[in-house]
Structure formats: C-alpha cells, structure tokens
Specification:
By secondary structure, this protein is α/β, with parallel strands linked by helices. The chain is built from 19 helices and 13 strands. The strands form two sheets. Strands 3-2-1-4-5-6-7 form a seven-stranded parallel β-sheet. Strands 10-9-8-11-12-13 form a six-stranded parallel β-sheet, sandwiched between helices.
Length: 524
C-alpha cells in the first residue's frame, strides 16, 4: 500500500513538473510564420523561435523554402519553394562585378515582392487560408510588407520579424527616428556623432525616406491585387498600422542605443544556441585534433565559394595552405580544386556550433549580420572580406572596435590576406577585445529567446495587444514632426503681429491726428 502511494506521489510530482515546464502564461496557441525568402540565413532566427514556442506547447506552422532537416514536435513545415533570383547577382559579386546596391535595388525589390506574392498565392498557403485559423501570424520582412494583409485572411494579429537588424520598419509603428542622435544603419556605429556626421546622417535618412516611398509605391499594387478594397479589405496603409509587434534582429551593444516603442523589441541572436548541439563526428574529430587551433571560412548562405574568381580563390588557397591551423570551409561543391591537406570542406556547416568550439581561433567571413553576431557571441576574432549591402559597415565596425581586420575583395591578394590573418592571430589584443564584446552582448536581463517568446505570447494573450499601438503611427510625416503645429503657431504669431501693428498704426493716427487738429485750431 505504501509503495503504491509512493508511486502515485512520484507520478503526480512528475506531472506537475511537466506542466510547470510547459506553462507559458498563455493557452496553447496556433502560430503561423510566413518567411518567403530565398536566403536560408534569414530564416534561422524565426526557426529557432518557432522551435522554442513548439517546445512550450504551441502549434507552430512555418511557411518557407527551408524546412527543418529533423522533425520537431508541434512544428509543421509548409514547403513553398521560391526562385533563387538573387543567384546571378551573388555570382557576379564573387567574380568582382559591381557591388553598387542602388544598381541592384530594383532587382532585389522585385524578386522579394514576386517571391512573397507567389508564396501567399501558392496552393499550399491557400489551403491554410481555406481550412485553418491562427491566433497570430509572424511575417518575415524584406521589402514585402504587403504580406501583412494576411491578417484579414486569418483574422488574427500580425507580428513583423526583421532579419536585417534596425531599419525601415520605424514607419510601421511610428517609432521615432531621432536623426540628430541615432546613426542610420548604413553609417555604422557613430557614438557620438560629429556635426559632419549629423549632416551626412540627415542626408542618408532623407534618401532612405525617398527610397522607402518609392518602394511603397511599387508594393501597393501587390497588396491591392491580393486584398482589394471592393471586397472589404482595409487599405494598404491601414494594414501596416495594424501590426501588433516588431521583432528586430539587433542588440544595442552591436550598434548604439536607440529609442524604441514598447512594441518594437530587439531580439538579436535568436539563432544562437546557449548550449551548442553536438557536432557531426567528422567535424568534431577535425576540430578536436586541431592542436594549433582552427579557422572557419564561410561567405554565408547566398554567396557560393565555388563562384570565386580564380585569382581570388588562388589568393585564399595560397594563404591558408601555409598556415599551421586546420581550416574548415563552407564549400558548396563536392570537390575543391587543389584543396590543401589542412582544409576540410562541407556544403552546409553548423556555423553556430563550429564557432562555439574551443579550438576555433579565427573566422574568415563576408561580414553578414548573422555571422558577425555569432562571432561576437562566441568570442571569435574575424578577418572580413565584405561583399555587398551592410557587410562593409559590419566589418568596418569590427575593425573600429578592435576585434578583427578587413581585406577588400578588390584588393585581395595572398600577401594581404596572410598579413591580415597573421595580425589577428598574432596579437592577443584582438582576442581580449572580443571577449569583452562577447561579455557585453551576453549580459542581458533575459535571453533574446525568452524575450521574443514572451512578446509573441503577450500578443496572443491580449488578442493583438491593441493597447501597444502608438498614436503617433496614425500621423503623417508632417504631423509626426509637428510641422502643422509649428505652421499654425507661426501663422498665429504672424496674425497677432499684424493685428498689433494695425492697432498701433490706428492708435498712432488717432493720437497724431488729434494733436495735429488741436495745433491747427490754436493757430486759428
């Protein structure tokens, strides 16, 4: 009898423990995430967030071109492949082609819009629209905010996830820009800004404002074709105002402190695991055996190393083949021509887990935000070869902070790369600086995962959390900057000045006119 009672107590305790562990402060919710992108690195953060939400008992559905390699309980992938329209552009970069982003902006914008439009109109997605309801929809943003219209299809609140850090989503929630103090993303970390910096910052924000309005003009027809007003859908402008929350792939220690509204939350580093997954046996053996340390080479998920121009490839091979360290290189082909003996290649490598290895001493990278963030978190110095977009700014910031070196792709030679690698590996100051940066990045009241999870569940609990909506988001650009108020006050001051002037003239005429009349009477 006593043993049976004891068994019941054990079972009851275990049940309570499981319930406590799964308790999330919100009932189990159905969560949809739509991330129509051809870039795998952009979905890593949302995938990690969804896996955590699934572990907490929510039913999650991810619509993307990149399903998980291993199934996860409560996690469903809806696979919608999109065309790799960026491929030729990325291949051009690796051949030394023009990296002027103004030139490629129309191509990138149209590709993003077309991929997003294809995704939400695909049979797989439309099946969800017809057959299911969700409690919240997370939309991956990359110049495709018309997708927010799915809120009307599913009759649920929407959350934006922006994988590129801080940027053009301020207008969605009405977040203050503070142009005089907060540098634009493309200018990097300038704290404080000089007068010239503020002039440049103002010009960049002005250009950004113009480009944003052009993109919105191009985007609006995509929204109206999917969510026409004649069928009762809200306007494109209203759909953007109805977003409940914005999750930013950034953290202030990587940039500068910025003012954020309560519904604009920094959750940079979601893809980074607090406890790394076990490495595949071949990679583990390779890194464990690196008695002189190891170097990781990766140009991200979009740039293919096999597309490297021959002279640049030869320069890298010539440099790393002479090193005593072991090299592990993300290489997208089965074979590497002339592969040195100290190099291990792999088509898709667990970057976060590799950077976490104790023998990893250096990261040779293109400087993408995700790569720089993971290197910072794990305390690994870098040598950057920036290629496009924000990568120049990211790598320049690393150099400025003192935990890496930069080599321009155009100037890349064996000698210059060897010198940069030798500089970073040979001077302990680089490793010491990145340890400090890593400590700052990790020192938070709660992890980015816990923070993002809390806010997603908060929006679910409060049915869209309309009380988070900032009234300033409803104002146009003139109203938001009080131009109308200043114009009104100026008009009032002007009117008062004119009235006072008029009264003073009248009084003067009356007084002077009276005196003149009196003098005339005295003369007569």
């Amino acid at each position: 009898m006593a043993s049976q009672l004891l068994s019941l107590l054990v079972i009851a305790s275990a049940t309570i423990l499981v319930l406590l562990l799964q308790s999330n402060g919100a009932d189990s919710a159905k969560i949809l995430c739509v991330f129509p992108t051809g870039s795998k690195s952009h979905v890593l953060g949302p995938q990690a967030l969804l896996k955590n939400l699934a572990q907490r008992g929510h039913e999650v559905t991810m619509v993307s071109s990149f399903p998980l390699s291993k199934p996860v309980k409560n996690y469903r992938d809806v696979y919608v492949p999109v065309d790799d329209k960026f491929g030729p552009v990325m291949a051009s970069f690796m051949q030394g082609g023009s990296r002027n982003m103004f030139k490629y902006m129309p191509i990138i914008t149209k590709a993003s819009l077309d991929n997003s439009n294809y995704t939400i109109n695909s049979p797989q997605f439309q099946k969800l629209v017809k057959e299911e309801q969700f409690d919240v929809a997370i939309v991956g943003f990359f110049m495709n905010d018309f997708v927010l219209g799915i809120r009307s299809w599913f009759k649920c609140p929407t959350i934006f996830y922006f994988s590129a850090g801080f940027g053009s989503l301020n207008n969605v929630v009405g977040n203050p820009l503070e142009v005089s103090a907060a540098p634009h993303l493309l200018l990097g970390k300038k704290d404080p800004m000089s007068f010239i910096d503020r002039v440049i910052n103002t010009l960049v924000y002005t250009i950004d404002f113009v480009i944003l309005n052009i993109i919105q003009h191009i985007t609006k027809p995509y929204y109206e074709s999917n969510f026409p007003a004649e069928k009762g859908y809200p306007s494109y402008e209203q759909a953007k105002l109805d977003v409940s929350l914005v999750l930013l792939n950034s953290y202030f220690t990587q940039s500068v402190p910025r003012p954020y509204l309560p519904n604009m939350v920094e959750v940079g580093g979601l893809q980074i695991k607090s406890k790394p997954d076990p490495l595949p046996e071949d990679i583990k053996a390779w890194l464990d055996g690196a008695k002189d340390g190891a170097i990781f080479i990766s140009f991200g998920s979009n740039l293919k190393s096999s597309n490297l121009r021959q002279d640049k490839f030869d320069a890298i091979i010539g440099s790393i083949s002479k090193l005593k360290q072991r090299i592990i290189w993300k290489w997208d082909a089965d074979e590497m021509p002339g592969k040195p003996a100290n190099v291990l290649i792999g088509k898709w490598l667990p970057q976060d887990d590799i950077l976490a290895h104790k023998n990893l001493k250096l990261f040779l990278t293109h400087g993408g935000l995700g790569s720089i963030t993971e290197a910072m978190y794990h305390g690994v110095p870098v040598v950057g070869i920036p290629m496009f977009g924000d990568q120049d700014t990211n790598v320049a910031q690393v150099v400025k902070e003192g935990w890496g070196a930069s080599v321009s792709f155009d100037d890349l030679t064996e000698e210059k790369l060897t010198a940069a690698i030798g500089e970073v590996l040979g001077k302990p100051g680089y490793a010491q600086t990145i340890e400090t940066m890593a400590s700052l990045y990790k020192d938070r009241p709660q992890s980015s995962m816990d923070l993002a999870t809390f806010w997603v569940e908060y929006v679910v609990r409060h049915k869209g959390a309309k009380h988070l909506h900032y009234q300033g988001a409803d104002l146009n650009v003139l109203q938001r900057n009080s131009v109308d108020v200043y114009a009104f006050l100026g008009a009032v001051v002007y009117a008062v000045f004119k009235i006072v002037s008029f009264v003073m003239r009248r009084v003067k005429r009356l007084v002077c006119g009276g005196k003149h009349a009196t003098q005339k009477q005295k003369k007569h």
